Amino acid sequence: MYGNRFRHNFLTALLLAPATAWLVVFLVLPFIAIAVFSVGERAPEGGYQAAFTFAQYANLPARATAFWNTMVLAPVGALACLLVAYPVAYYLALQAPQRWRLILLALVVIPFWTSLLMRTYAWMYILGGRGIPALLAFVGIEDVRLINTPGAVLLGIVYGYLPLMILPIYVSLERLDRRLLEASADLGATPLSTFLGVTLKLSLPGVMTGFSLVMILLLGEYLIPTLLGGGKVFFIGNALVDLFLQSRNWPFGSAIAITLVLVSVVVLIVANRISTRVSGARRVDLI
Amino acid sequence: MRAFVIAVFGFLYLPIALVVLFSFNAGRHASEFTGFSVQWYGTALSNPFLVEALKNSLFIATTSALLAAVFGTAAALGLARVGIRTRAVFDALLGAAIVVPGVVIGISTLVALVQLFAFVNPFLASIWPDDQPPRLSLGYGSIIAAHGLFSMALVTMIVGTRLGSLDRNLVEASSDLYATPLTTFRSIVLPQIMPAVVAGFLLAFTFSFDDFIIAFFVAGAQTTLPIYVFASIRRGVTPEINAIATIVLVASVLLVVLAQWQLRQRKPSN
């Protein structure tokens, strides 16, 4: 009996060992490393020099623009995604003909799994001088500037992250017990109050999952502001690339990275709280 | 409602369609389509830097996805055998690997590896018998490991879900009939989780092949396809990029379709 249990535990440990090693070496230790770096100093020739100071954190306002842009455009972008995504998810889950449902869903997912770089680059074409502005000039509207504006970045965000918002909302609407909708109508509720009181309320876990996922990914976004914002709409991700790869101020970059992770954690916790309180249900797991 | 949904699908696919269309453009410019030609595919595939980047990306994506599929599956099997507390810690770490933004994964891996190399390289130099000690540096290894982290988490979750819906009766019946645990695993468990493993591998491959931001930090002197494409976009848009973008789009669509098809294969009947 004892030998058997020993063998059971040994095999379990063996199965988990590579994954554990990977998580520790490439997730836990690196995170500790940037935490240590964030209280250090920049070495004279760039990089890191050991110290214990919170000067890097005190210096965060130096990148206030990047923080401001991110903190405004991430929630606004996620909200815009939500407004476009909800009707699509609603149609797919509750109205689309059964045999079309999976095909339409696949059509939503495919862009998400194709390169964000290539898709964002397509918008550089469309918004650039030879795209829509050229069309507008043709009908007499001159000098329209679309690319390298916050609006272009917002458009890129909605385009890039829309599938990630549609999916969890679709999942929560799909699981919805349709008898509840009938019951609500039978009890004399108007379609609007059925939607608000039943459908929307029960889909809130999916909404919160989508919103917090998109929010968190946007907090670290780099490509969209770079390609569509043209260096004018700076995000935290841009600040990090600049600090690590150009000016080589690793301790300051680490302090920003730690702040970014903390903000992400707060977003997750708040989202979880809200969806638990509103519907008593947990967030939708995507996988 | 329906019109809105159609408009959204148009919004999702119009830019992709334009890239594909202009990859067949005979002219040099983006705005006017001056005739059908496949010349830009030829230009792209005879550009040695581009081909090199493509090969690097294929090698990195295959290796990291394979490692992720093997170790992720092992982890999912192991997690099915542990207590609730160990499981919670593991789930939190796997969730973190997926949710932490790529920028942060990239920089923290860079910082940790550079620190590690600073210790290991002098040590290797001191114990090495001749004057040419091996030097660890950023490159294939660091990209594969950083991509593998996310991918492994993904595989563990997908396979774990599949394990959860596995018919326990079959496993019990198998051991009642005196099959060894290994036989049970090979003939009952593995065939049932295989579609999830393959789907995980394909998604991991797609992710690694497309990733720009993590590789940007940990690539060192290596160039992957997204890094090359990013650099050329910044130098100015060329029709060559349309051709390569089309190839990548078609390849990733095929892989995702294959992955979805695998996931739906032999679904446990419930």
Structural commentary:
Chain A is mostly helical and about 290 residues long. Chain A has twelve helices and two strands, in the order αββααααααααααα. Chain A has a two-stranded antiparallel ribbon. The model of chain A has no long low-confidence stretch (mean pLDDT about 90). Chain B has eleven helices and no strands. At the A-B interface, α1, α3, α4, α5 and α7 of A face α1, α3, α4, α5 and α6 of B.
- The end-to-end distance of chain A, rounded to whole angstroms, is 37 Å
Give the number of DSSP strands of chain B: 0
Strand content of chain B: under 5%
Average predicted confidence as pLDDT of chain B = 87
User: Mind telling me the C-alpha Rg of chain A?
Assistant: 24 Å
User: How would you spell out the order of helices and strands of chain B?
Assistant: HHHHHHHHHHH
Shape of chain A: globular
Strand order of the largest sheet of chain A: 1-2
The major sheet of chain B is characterized as: none
Largest sheet of chain A: 2 strands, antiparallel
Structural class of chain A: mainly alpha
Task: Please estimate the helix content of chain B.
Answer: over 70%
Structure characteristics:
heterodimer, A: 287 residues, mainly alpha, two-stranded antiparallel sheet, 76% helix, 1% strand, globular, B: 270 residues, 78% helix
Question: How do the helices and strands line up, and which of them pair or pack?
Answer:
The complex is a heterodimer of chains A (287) and B (270).
Chain A: H1 2-37, E1 41-42, E2 48-49, H2 55-58, H3 64-95, H4 98-112, H5 116-127, H6 132-138, H7 150-174, H8 178-186, H9 191-219, H10 223-229, H11 236-246, H12 250-279
Antiparallel strand pairs in A: 1-2
Chain B: H1 2-23, H2 39-45, H3 48-79, H4 84-99, H5 102-127, H6 140-164, H7 168-176, H8 181-210, H9 213-218, H10 225-235, H11 239-264
